[in-house]
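Most newcomers find our protein records easier to grasp once they have seen one. A record pairs a protein's sequence with a compact description of its fold. An example says more than a description, so a record of this kind follows:
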Amino acid sequence: MQLGYVTAIIPEYSLEEHFALAAEIGYECVEVMCWPPGKAERRYAGVTHLDVAALDEAGVAHVRELQQHYGVRISALGYYPNPLVADREEGQVYIDHLYQLLDAASLLGVGSVTTFVGRDPLRTIDEQWDRFLEVWQPLVAHAEKRGVRIGVENCPMRFTKDEWPGGKNLAVSPAVWERMWRDIPSANWGLNYDPSHLVLQHMDYTLPFRMYPDRMVHVHAKDARIDVEARDHHGVFSHPNLWHTPKIPGLGDVDWGQFIGHLRETGYDGAVCVEVEDRTFEGSLEKRIASLRQSYNYLRPFIS
């Protein structure tokens, strides 16, 4: 396994600055954010450390040189929009960019693209399943042609007003994953697995990679803390922000020794990338860098 981090937490750094920071701390890889240049309303979105639409032969060579120079590899190209948004014209913009990510990953020799499946939060899963197949069957087929795997993150995306009630991501549970893989039976897609999202849902966060070891494309190291008293006061059907807090590894409810131990036993030998969404560390650039150092120091003994 290789320990890395997600570049979204430091949007103001260049790609080279991220390679340098990762090398200085000791990280072996980075998941590089590849949103189209511009702003986004959602936190941690709209971050562009590699503009895949502008990538040419010289750009590919430069990125490869940076990886070699700093001894840090790219674990995945990341982009997390909502391709199944109700507005099809908007959704097509996201879909087109995902195709560009797949092409760029192939050119760079990066094996993975990480993203969301998407969802219309006002419709049931069954009501939008045909739309899901319409979008994702050709995307997965394109990934196969390019020799790239798609890792879908399992975040419910139910944290803001416009994400309620259904959330903006279909891929939230083993039942849905199994249906996805049954209807699009390709080895070129699986999970960008984040245990914190199962902590939120009161599920066994070690079960997915024990059940589906071949579907582990990429792994996020993010923790979550449940305020049990607040949850018991508001109830599990209340807004999760009332009783759930994202944390860096070691400051939440995930047992990382158990998690990494089980993950290793499944034969997983890919990237485990720290994803920082802990507001405690968001006050300054120094604090965000400190969160990456602290996460590295905590996880390093588990990932040799």
